[in-house]
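Methods — Computational structure assignment.
A single polypeptide chain was analysed. Its primary sequence is given first, followed by the predicted tertiary structure written as structure tokens.
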Amino acid sequence: MTNPADPRLLRLHPADNVLTVISTLEAGATIRVGEAEVIVSSRLPLGHKVAGCVIAEGEKIVKYGAPIGSASRSIAAGEHVHTHNLKSDYLPTFLREDQGRYFAQPHA
């Protein structure tokens, strides 16, 4: 496992484009992601993900060396990666605004 310069973040696999928060970060904290310093905009609890680089809309999110979903919009380096900007490529999304689309489609 390799670490970025910030000891509060952990890259679990060399191929990962997200870093795992290993020490809760409060809003306003500064983290180092690659060569950039980024100010955390909201509290990030232990275990949450931040982008280890710029991730383009539609690009695969990789954690543990495997894709876990796709970016639903462009994500800046150091930005929180969660359900607001990540969609599963494997499971339906059960957000209120998506329910009509999901349940209207026949499923095998």
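Note: The radius of gyration is 15 Å.
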